[in-house]
Amino acid sequence: MNFALNLLSVAAISAGSVFFLAGTLGLLRFPDALSRLHTLTKADNVGLGLVVIGLLPLAHGVLGGLKLVVVWVLVQLSGATVGQLIAQSIRRTGPTA
Amino acid sequence: MSAATLAGLTGALLAGLGLYGLIIQPDPLRRILAFNVLGSGVFLLFGIIARRGAVAGALADPVPQALVITGIVVAFAATALAVALLVRLSGETSRLGLPAELSGQTRGDGADD
Amino acid sequence: MIVQTLDIGLAALVLTLAGWTVLAHATFPAVVSYVAYGLLLSLIWVRLFAVDVALTEAAIGGGVTGVLLIGAASKLRKAALSTTERELTPPLRWAIAALCVLATLVLATIVLSLPDPPPTLAPEAVQNIAATGLGNPVTAVLIAYRAFDTMLEKCVLVLAVVGVWSLASDRYWGGAPGAPRAVTWDGALTFFAQLLPPLGILIGIRIFWIGADEPGGAFQGGAILAAMWMIIMMARLADAPAIGERWMRIALAAGPIVFLGVGILGFVAGWGFLAYPAGFAKPLIIFVEIFMTLSIAATLPMLVAGPPIRAPRP
Q: Which residue among C130, C273, C295, C307 is buried most deeply as judged by most CB within 10 Å?
């Protein structure tokens, strides 16, 4: 049981890191700001979610796991808001590189 | 080499980088940034001293940690005052930094201060 | 403990970001890089087993200072560089770089030749902590052992606020800094500023309260409360308070005044200036910390908001 949980943790955190890497690759390679914003918000949210799922078996009890989930929800909230704000600013000033 | 020593060397490098930026950069806001980098590097030096003071019962010496917490807050207060001064000055003169007339470089009548 | 790949990676990242902050060409990327640098630096603090410092660095060093500097960068975007700065010729640059390398080498030598066995105050701190009733030695150092330093630091914060306010034009004295309350509210920032502060206030109070026994404390909790207020002001859901308002001035001064009052109470009652009586130490410490948190939560947004730019209402 312990081995299976550890395996799940390693797999989930690795998958999360792959998503983060993909998001960073998109940040570096996509042509304009809006598409870079898209890849950052989507990949980072899913990546963080997978990392949180991977950390849940290692958390300190139910309260610790709940705190991890709250962290994920807050990061999603702030990421979504910042994404909207940046996109509005891009729409105002026109697409620049 | 332990993690604490690596952090201490990082702090030394950060202090050097911050000092370089503080002297080189013409823009006062960049100087404030470099000053903050310098400050955080010095705080890391406190951190290694705290970590090396670990004994049975405490993972690190708490006194330097408390000094660093105080230092971070005071550094923020100093940065806020510096930024307010800079914004006010640039609001008056539309320039960053001291205006040419005050620096004494263009006045020829020998008036000082 | 031996150095691990994590430590090497963190050090490399932090140094790269610091180099970018110092050497970047444009100001705004440098400021953004500084915010990321502050957050990664707090991870190094966690590796040094200084979690209270990591919380403070992330909240105040990276977060609130970042807000301050981003606001400054946007206000100063249109200002041209002053022409009084002497042009730095390459030989002068090399000389300055050599000076900085020398300073780095001196500090690195100090780091590598620290005395062994290391002098430490940890045993005394841990031994006497039972008398204060606290469980977190850093909080005990801040509020009990070195209470004088912390009280003076609160006074420094008040002085900084007075300094920032004194930069106002005479006709704006007593008015409010920042943009006024918006007439219509919509958009992502408004949604964010309505959703996050209730949760953030809970988290801030929790981090302040837990600081007695676990990493946390008044500065960290107060910084989170300050951040919630700053979000509300940035979304223009509420007016920035006028600096002449009585409650604002009481909130700012409450921290140092209560601290000093408890100190004088100790002097009068015979325990000693800024000492606590055995058996009643923890309630007094919590009492002082509550007002410290309130004061910090009021001071940090006022420092970020800057001097008043609107005339006071008659």
A: C295
CATH 1.10.287.3510 for domain B3-96, yes or no, is yes
How many angstroms away from the CA of C159 is the closest CA of chain B? 9
Confidence class for position B100, pLDDT limits 50, 70, 90:
low
CB-CB neighbors (< 8 A) of C192 in chain A: 77-78, 81
Domain assignment present for residue C39? The answer is yes
List the domain range (segments joined by +) for residue C239: 123-314
- Which chain C residues are within 8 Å of A70, Cβ to Cβ? 199
Do residues C295 and C154 lie in contact, with contact meaning Cβ atoms separated by under 8 Å? yes
Q: Does C36 touch chain A (CB under 8 A)?
A: no
DSSP C171: G
pLDDT digits (tens, 9 = 90+) for C187-227: 888 899 999 999 999 999 999 999 988 899 999 999 999 99
Q: Do C187 and A84 make contact, defined as CB atoms within 8 angstroms?
A: yes
Contact C68 B80 (CB under 8 A): yes
Residues C244/C266, Cβ–Cβ less than 8 Å: no
Residue C85 lies in a domain: no
pLDDT digits 0-9 by tens, C246-262: 899 999 999 999 999 99
Q: C60-91, pLDDT tens digit by residue?
A: 999 999 999 999 998 888 777 665 666 778 88
- Whole-angstrom distance, CA of residue A56 vs CA of residue C181: 42
Physical contact, A and B (3 or more Cβ pairs within 8 A) = no
User: Using an 8 Å Cβ cutoff, are C279 and C268 in contact?
Assistant: no
H or E segment and range at residue B73: helix B62-93
Q: Does C148 touch chain A (CB under 8 A)?
A: no
ipTM of the complex: 0.92
Torsion sign, CA atoms C233, C65, B100, C168: positive
